[in-house]
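Memo to structure team: turn this sequence into structure tokens by end of day. - J.P.
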Amino acid sequence: MRTYIGGQEAVSVDEFIELALGTPLELWLGVDGESEEERAARLDAARDILAEFPDLPDGVSRVAAQVIEANAPELFNIAPLVRLPAGRRPAHKGGKGAAA
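Reply from structure team:
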């Protein structure tokens, strides 16, 4: 099965992510051994991109959710948390009671 994003074929997971983001993955994650100067320049470029495209994080979250849903849907199988009514706390077991 082939995957295309914007008319370009993604031949690897990294390429898929890069095409989906519209930026190289290294821009956001960095690279091993980068200098402080390289890191500062990379973060400055990332800030500029986020300033120009403020909805980018939401788009990235959507893409990530779609990829998870398509490839590992069991990650979305979650159990709801049980909420206690306000003011009630579960009884503490095994401890001593408070002195009156």
